[in-house]
Amino acid sequence: MSRSNSSRQARSAMERTERQAENAASGIVQAVQDFGRDASSAVQESYEDLRDGASGYVRQGREFAENWEKTLEKHVKDQPVQSLMIALGLGLAIGYLYRRL
């Protein structure tokens, strides 16, 4: 009987060890899933921050270009001869540099 008693104890110990291993594996799986969710959330937040920042820079650039265009139009309307001479001088300088290359 001691042999069957030992056999039952061994089997019981193996079953306990198996349950402990399954519980540990479940805990590890859960930890990895949680980590994946946290990492995914962090990446999503970073992407949204980057997108919002880029949108802000695009908006600022567009506003700057529009303001510069309005200022240039006003200058040309207020002083057409001077604007024509500046454009002619720039055209000659760019043409000269382009021909030298």
Summarize the structure in words.
The structure is a single chain. The protein is mainly alpha-helical. It has one domain. The protein is built from 2 helices and no strands. α1 packs across α2. The mean pLDDT is 90.
In this structure, how is the largest beta sheet organized? none
Silhouette:
rod-shaped
Number of strands: 0
Gyration radius (Cα, Å) is: 38 Å
User: What is the average per-residue confidence, as pLDDT, rounded to a whole number?
Assistant: 90
Counting structural domains, the number is: 1
Helix content: over 70%
SSE succession: HH
Tell me the strand percentage band: under 5%
Supply the helix-strand structural class: mainly alpha
Number of helices: 2
CA(first)-CA(last) distance = 104 Å
Low-confidence stretches: none
Lay out the secondary structure.
Layout: H1 2-78, H2 80-100
Helix pairs in contact: 1-2
List keywords for this structure.
0% strand; 101 residues; single chain; mainly alpha; 2 helices; 97% helix
Short description:
The chain has helices spanning 2-78, 80-100. The chain has one domain. With 101 residues, the protein is mainly alpha-helical.
